Amino acid sequence: MNHTITFTDIYEKHEKPVYNYVLRMVRDQEAAKDLTQDIFIKVYHKLTSFKGDAQISSWLYRIATNAYVDYLRTKGYRQSTVTDPFEENEEKDSDNKIVKKVLSIEDQFVKSNMNACIKGFLDNLPEDYRAVIVLHDLQGFKNREIADILNCSLGTVKIRLHRARNKFRGVLASNCDFYRNSDSMLSCDRKGN
């Protein structure tokens, strides 16, 4: 084990991204908070067994994914709605540091509506498809890392990601009209409204 890696380091660096990942999967803020806490308790207990044969992030997200699968198996699991988990007003600067971005009230409204629309369609994707899109496109993992996290082959990840994107793209094209508003911010309207 790499002794320079501490639980505190892992928690400080990965707590928010793991919470966001879990929230996008379970779609319930309270359940996501509880599940994230359980994940980090497991990480704390398993840290001594981490051999370093994978990246910490891959190992951590595998634990998170397994915790999510266990969550689905519990009697307490139920489909629920949540306030918009995509509603993060953060960006990364040129040094890859997170900085807060201040949006006008109008831009916040546009972003919130678009995120709610897209989130609704993302939530309806099959679990396997949603997992690869969330891990790759929203969490920024590479295909090899996703294969490690989901404990499947690289080919399976590539196929799922390709199929998930095609399905998602088709659903969005049939249900949404995308355009740029007067501030050049990407916006969408549901078709038929």
Architecture overview:
Helices cover 61% and strands 8% of the residues. The chain is built from seven helices and four strands. By secondary structure, it is mainly alpha-helical. About 8% of the residues have low confidence. The protein has two domains: 67 residues, Rna Polymerase Sigma Factor, Chain: A (Orthogonal Bundle); 88 residues, Orthogonal Bundle (Arc Repressor Mutant, subunit A). The radius of gyration is 18 Å and the shape is globular. The strands form two sheets. The chain has a two-stranded antiparallel ribbon with strand order 1-2. The chain starts with 6 loop residues before the first helix and ends with a strand.
Q: Extract low-pLDDT stretches.
A: 75-89
- Class of the largest domain, according to the CATH hierarchy? Mainly Alpha
Give the domain tally. 2
Strand order of the largest sheet: 1-2
Output the CATH homologous superfamily of the largest domain: Winged helix-like DNA-binding domain superfamily/Winged helix DNA-binding domain
Order of helices and strands: HHHEEHHHHEE
Count of DSSP helices? 7
Largest sheet: 2 strands, antiparallel
Strand coverage percent: 5-15%
Work out the number of β strands: 4
Might you state the CATH topology name of the largest domain?
Answer: Arc Repressor Mutant, subunit A
End-to-end Cα distance, whole Å, is: 57 Å
Structural class: mainly alpha
Global Rg: 18 Å
The second-level CATH architecture of the largest domain is Orthogonal Bundle
The geometry reads as: globular
Percent helix range: 55-70%
